[in-house]
Design a protein that fits this description.
Length: about 190
């Protein structure tokens, strides 16, 4: 499935704390395709401009910890470019980002990719608990996201995939177990036929 005339892209989106990365990683592993994630691109960009801290650790630039900040926007642009390159080369893959942006979707469709959107959701109490746990571990971005969620600024509708995709599958990760990706596999098979 790595190389086809018309690639298939599984675009995983959803609220921070919903379980997107877990679902996307499991899907890529099951399908045997590459996995492209904005957060890993952001980390790579952040490390490329990092310095050595006084304690010998890594000192990331201040904008690394701003959700939606300049580094996040650069990571999104790099992800869109990489996704376009993969799709136009006929490579099927899984891409993950909180929001399936119109720009990303347009690049994929312009490459004649079949797009399956996977909207990962979880009960609000579960998302809140996950974000609080991540914030307690000390991540600046996670503290910001947890605070935004608690203020009601991250409604589920913000993360719903836009129209124009080949199909949409919703995966609920509230139970916390291994994600059920059988519905994703079934939708992939239907799109390939």
């Amino acid at each position: 499935m790595l190389r086809r005339e018309r690639p298939l892209v599984v675009a995983v989106c959803g609220s921070p704390g919903a379980g997107k990365t877990t679902v996307a990683c499991a899907t890529a592993r099951r399908l045997g395709v590459p996995f492209l994630t904005r957060d890993e691109i952001k980390l790579g960009l952040g490390l490329s401009s990092a310095s050595v801290a006084k304690d010998g650790g890594v000192q990331l630039t201040p904008d690394f910890h701003i959700a939606g900040g300049p580094l996040s926007l650069r990571a999104e642009a790099v992800m869109v470019d990489a996704a376009g390159l993969f799709a136009s080369s006929g490579v099927s893959f899984v891409v993950e980002s909180s929001v399936l942006s119109r720009k990303l979707l347009d690049v994929l469709l312009a490459s004649d990719a079949r797009v399956l959107a996977v909207h990962v959701v979880a009960q609000e109490s579960v998302v809140d608990e996950r974000l609080r746990a991540r914030a307690a571990e000390g991540g600046g971005v996670d503290r910001q996201l947890s605070s935004q969620f608690q203020r009601g600024e991250m409604k589920r509708s913000i993360f719903e995939p836009p129209g124009g995709v080949g199909a949409v599958v919703e995966v609920d990760t509230s139970d916390g177990g291994d994600p059920d990706i059988e519905p994703i596999e079934a939708a992939v098979v239907a799109l390939i036929r």
